[in-house]
Design a protein that fits this description.
The protein has no helices and nine strands. The protein is an all-beta fold and about 150 residues long. The strands form two sheets. Strands 2, 4, 5, 6 and 8 form a five-stranded antiparallel sheet that branches. The radius of gyration is 17 Å and the shape is elongated.
Amino acid sequence: MDGMFKNAIHVPRLKPAANDTWELQGSLLGTQETSETIAMDFPGPCKLVGMYPSISGVRQTGGLVQPTLDDIMILLDFNQKRKYTAQVGQTSQAQRGQGFVTLNALNTLFRDLEIEVTNERPVMDVQFRWKRFTQGTPIFPDQAVSLAFFVEVL
């Protein structure tokens, strides 16, 4: 019985209440390693109870590979203070360019979230980056990268 659950995918125990869905979208060009920073102004304090990342892009051409959510990394912070992504061995003091994690890791299918943001006017900054990148030789075509947030307004 113990081994039965080891390889099972994590499924959230409950579906948290979230009456609002907010989404941001950015472009990640195949010829650039990182996207522009995308800022999202929140109307007030809230709790993020889930996220859903998605990508859409042009069809693969000229030997380019169609990326998955595991080929793109994300950096996410609030008010340029609290970072919600970091690589192994880093702390919240990590430099901005070093705090990227795999985009699919934020998918609520794999874990529950409870990010409470109590500022009066929180601002979230998000930046996307290719996990594999070679300057001058694109691996992936341009992508529109989206991140939907399931939100409980406080």
